[in-house]
Write the structure tokens for this entry.
Amino acid sequence: MKQRADQSRKGKAPRFRVRRSLFKKYLTFGLTILLTSFIALSVTMYIFVNNYWEREKKQNLLDNAQRVAEGIEDSAIYLPASHTLILDEHKLFGLTYSSISEIIDADIFIVDNKGECLFCTEDKGCIHDTSTLPTYVMAATASGEFFESGNLGGYYPDNRYTAGVPIIAATDDGEGIIAFCYASTADTFVSGLPVTFLQIFLTAAAIMLVIVIIFVATMSYSMSRPLRQMSSAAKKFAVGDFSARVKVSSDDEIGELATAFNYMADSLSSSESMRRSFISNVSHELKTPMTTIAGFIDGMLDGTIPQERQPHYMRIVSNEVKRLSRLVTSMLSLSRIDRGELKINRKKFDLFSMLITILASYEQKIIERKLHITGLEDFRSITVNADPDLMYQVIYNLIENAVKFTNEGGTINFAVEETRYDISVMITNTGAGIAPEDIRFIFDRFYKTDKSRSMDKKGMGLGLYIAKTIMRLHGGDIFVDSRVNEYTRFTFRLPTTDEYKKTEKRESKYVETTATNETEE
């Protein structure tokens, strides 16, 4: 059953359960910060406004209580013998202090030294007429002024702002306190300036909250969208579909990640294309020589090929075996590179002598195709410290390509440049050249510019990749430039100083990179 389930899932993109999307996380985080900020701001502003409101109320009540007290001191009659304060009950007296009471939205009342109400701006039967003011309130007022935010020790049923001042008049012993004047208003925050200010703040906060929610939601969605696209594309990559790309809409870290993701997708797509091409090439390269070998050997065994012709066909079989051997060698070199096992064994040898030896092995082909070799007369003995076997492979590959792709009757030119630090050898051949769209991939593994196999019938697309790897292991490099229908020039640079020692101290494992090559215009 398990095997069937695995087979049924094969070729389908994997499904993942997203417990909490990044969009929701961003949105939740943004709203949490926003609401926390609004709450903190609201509490802070409430404290400041409330304190300001309380100070203003205190000052307003004290000022008006003092004004009323001074009016009473000027107009009231005090009888020292009986300690009695006679207030003018004239209508004008009541209207004056009632107007002040309405203006400041407070009750004004006057009590004697016993706490009994002598005058009140409220109607008869109010709490001031029916209750006696606590003694501690009058004692505190006697010191000059009094203010409290509370119920005055149970005098009021609810909390109020109450301010009071003493009323002073002449007595037998001089000036003394004959009564107390108080102004009291509701301890509320829902009227006047505070509520207006609070309404303005809450309205502005609500508008800002909506705007910020839209902004955070938009921002969160725009940040998470490329990630969702990458996730969807990665699932397609898992089943071999490399066509998906992520739209790059910003130049920040997310945009950089999307660009890198698209670059990775291009590399994977290119690698997949080269892998398929490689499989096709390997299949062809293996099938053709094995078919040839099997056919000729069978012909020799069953007598179809006469005895006198067998040496001729044996040479053909030998060439096909060597062809298979080269293929296996290239594959083994590729495997060693991937495992980081390709090491260099440096020795001093003459690079010019190696070049002449390799070129001589192609003498017959050069003569058959009527190729012209130039530039060798400018060479001299060049001693280098490198791995002779690996360098042989590099030069062999470059000369083989030059002979293979030079037009009949064309020219192959060799040139050398030496500096204090390195030596560069340039191999230029005339011919079709390399197209600009191909030149940037020329050193990639399995890449072949001759896709029709009309000229490169034996190549596997590994030679230049291996050559570049070998040169980098030596601390050097290899480059190419070309003009279509004119020439192709390969240049390999090999350090001649102790620069290569720095390379040997690095990690032994070679990390593949694709160089960016420029094409001459």
